[in-house]
């Protein structure tokens, strides 16, 4: 069967329109991302069309799959929770699962280092014997862009120093929050034109492979009939 | 329409996986040389249609086009939909590998039903063909929703309420799909009537010609 030329052209035009539509329209995968700040973890859930996933069930698991806490997202698809003490103490990775119902769910893995799990455990213990070490750990955590330690941590003997440290920490947390959100958001895979064209290429390739095998069978059966 | 990973339990996943392998084998066997290009064209359409977003319903819904695939491809819709879903899982992160079988069954089985229910009516010209094509698109989503509900219920009884929501959520999609399928079939009938030929019919294809 040979396609008439105009049909082929229409098919190409239709496909091209589809592809153009795609760059605008998106579909319904659930995007979840989370970031830490100010002793809390903020999880955001949205459909890939950008609409927030409202009133969806959120479950936070640890690495072993045990549920640590549950909750629901608000009108903006945001769920905020304080970092669980045991998670902080043991430095466990948190898996945040958002279930929208209808069999749709998305998840996000927040590594312990992303919210300052094990490090802030030291400051939570808060013994004055650890002062010198503590300052170092705070420095490290802000350097990594995670300032999960609460601002009120008693980290220095000098009350003046303590106040300044707390103030700096609040400011850094505030300034870093949008950055963290942006970085977390970028780690969510976005469908790009390459993906679409790549997929179409695979389909064509598979069709070619099928052609090869079917044609092989075809010719062999034809020659069989001829002889 | 794609069920995400980690929602369903193992027996459903495995059962549907095995069924998918069987149906796909039949579909591949029934696909002859002349139809490969039709199949791959419609696979491309199915693959991309999922990116076309319909802003209706409480969540977010996209075109599925499984009715169209079923009507045009018949048994070949199984390999076609399986391929498209695999690529969607790889490139768009829809569904996933473990739920590939379930999702294929959910979308391809209704497509096959539509093939048997609707296809005979497409020989008719004019209004009857339009109505049949609309019904094809509509029914495919209706049956897909039904299968989705069944899959969710057998996995977890607590999902019953969600199952009721699925029907409500997919109702607009049924209409949209019906209209899309209708226009697609009418377009094909006009431009490329070959697409709507049954290969069994080829000797007596006079019934299919457009006036």
Describe the structure.
The complex is a heterodimer of chains A (227) and B (211). Chain A has 227 residues and is α+β, with helices and mostly antiparallel strands. Chain A has a domain at 30-186: Immunoglobulin-like (Sandwich). In chain A, 48% of the residues lie in helices and 21% in strands. Chain B has one domain: Arp2/3 complex 21 kDa subunit ARPC3. Chain B contains 7 helices and 2 strands; from the N terminus they run ααββααααα. In chain B, helix 2 (36-49) runs antiparallel to helix 3 and helix 2 crosses helix 4 (77-91). Chain B starts with 9 loop residues before the first helix and ends in a 20-residue tail after the last helix. The chains are: A alpha+beta (227), B mainly alpha (211). Chains A and B meet through helix 1, strand 6, strand 7 and helix 6 of A and helix 2, strand 2, helix 4, helix 6 and helix 7 of B.
Overall pLDDT level of chain A: 71
Classify the secondary structure makeup of chain B into a structural class.
mainly alpha
SSE order of chain A = HEEEEEHEEHHHH
The largest sheet of chain A is:
4 strands, antiparallel
Q: Compute the number of helices of chain B.
A: 7
Instruction: Name the average pLDDT of chain B.
Output: 83
Considering the chains and any ligands shown, give keywords for the structure:
heterodimer, A: 227 residues, alpha+beta, Immunoglobulin-like, three-stranded antiparallel sheet, 7 strands, B: 211 residues, mainly alpha, Arp2/3 complex 21 kDa subunit ARPC3, 2 strands, globular, disordered C terminus
Secondary structure blueprint with pairings:
The complex is a heterodimer of chains A (about 230) and B (about 210).
Chain A (H helix, E strand, L loop, with lengths): L4 H20 L5 E8 L2 E8 L9 E5 L5 E6 L5 E5 L2 H6 L3 E8 L2 E7 L6 H9 L5 H13 L15 H28 L6 H34 L1
Antiparallel strand pairs in A: 1-2, 2-5, 3-4, 3-6, 6-7
Helix pairs in contact in A: 3-4
Chain B lengths: L9 H21 L5 H14 L3 E2 L6 E2 L3 H8 L3 H15 L8 H19 L8 H29 L4 H32 L20
Antiparallel strand pairs in B: 1-2
Helix pairs in contact in B: 1-4, 1-5, 2-3, 2-4, 3-5, 3-6, 4-5, 5-6, 6-7
